Amino acid sequence: MNTLPTRRVEAWRYSDLARALDGASTPMVGDGEIIERLARGATAFTERVLSGGEKDVVVDYVEPEGFAPRAESIIVGAGGAYHRIVLQRGDSVALSSCRVRLEAGAVFRQFIIAEGGKLARIETHVDVAGEGAEVELNGVYLCAEGRHADLTSVVTHKAHGGKTNQLIKGVARKGGRGVFQGKILVERAAQKTDARQYHHGMLLEEGAEIFAKPELMIHADDVACAHGNTAGGLNEGPLFYLRSRGVPEAEARALLTEAFLLEALPDWAPPDVRAEIEARASAWLRGAP
Questions:
Q1: Residue ranges covered by each domain of the chain
Q2: Strands (E), 147-270
Q3: In what order do the strands lie in the sheet with 6-9?
């Protein structure tokens, strides 16, 4: 049962910025700094410190109008916990960066559901600076025609005994593009690190695109680290089984794809937010607007 306080951050809207920067093109290098600079210029940069033992859950709606960069930087004190859920949708340009520093025993958990946009990039950068800190980075992307969703993350382990678990799942239709870029860096001092990173993409139609770049960089010699990546189509065996039981093909495909995606949805999500995420995935898969 979730007992942590929950806050909601409503959609940020920057119509004035969109007019001022319409057509701007900025290279994205994946270190978060470009989005942070843009966010500072748009007065959309926030900083926060969670004191030792403090816990918080934030639900962040990213539904921009036009060009809307935003960024946050947070330090989680020893024994603290920061849980973040990001719900992104819209047909504009959405740029988001979150930078987190974890002290000893701190926890950062994140879940993202991204429906993409003209360009949607959500970056997450985590420094595991304290001994025994833990990271969970899960996410789902759903890219329809003309939509682009990019989930980029960098986790840097700097201290002994840290843990990272990452599971990203995504689907794309014809003309949609999903991107996953994930790097886990284990520095020499971060002995006994346990880091796992997995990405699984599903191409729902011919002409869909999924790009994945998982990375492990390990400089310590006493660690347990693994990563994996797959991309393909729907398994025809379970599909045949459902159809043989009278389930229409479209509904069978939706059910199987929904089960595939929602494996990434964590059990710590508040029940009302979990229900909203499930409803978004269900509506997308069944073609609802």
A1: 6-233
A2: 148-157, 163-172, 177-186, 194-203, 209-218, 224-232
A3: 6-9, 55-62, 81-88, 107-114, 134-143, 163-172, 194-203, 224-232
Contact 247, 255 (CB under 8 A): yes
Which phi and psi angles does 26 have, rounded to 5°? -125, 130
282 neighbors 274 (Cβ within 8 angstroms)? no
Q: Mean pLDDT of residues grouped by 10 in the chain (289 residues)?
A: 46 38 40 84 92 94 85 97 96 93 98 96 97 98 96 97 98 96 97 97 95 95 95 89 90 94 95 96 84
Can you read off the two tokens belonging to residue 275?
């229900």
Distance CA 175, CA 144 (A): 7
Give the DSSP H/E element, type plus range, for residue 244: helix 236-244
Exposed, middle or buried: residue 17 (CB in 10 Å: 0-12, 13-18, 19+)?
buried
Is residue 280 a contact partner of residue 272, using CB atoms and an 8 Å limit? no
- Picking from 224, 212, 226, the residue whose alpha carbon sits closest to that of residue 166 is 226
Please state the pTM of the whole predicted model. Answer: 0.88
How many whole angstroms separate alpha carbon 92 and alpha carbon 19? 13
* Contact (Cβ atoms closer than 8 angstroms) between residue 87 and residue 12: no
pLDDT recorded at residue 106 = 98
The contacts of residue 260 (CB under 8 Å, 6+ apart) are 169, 171, 200, 202
Residue 1: per-residue pLDDT: 45
Report residue 212 as tokens: 């994945």
Rounded to whole angstroms, the Cα distance separating 134 from 106 reads: 6
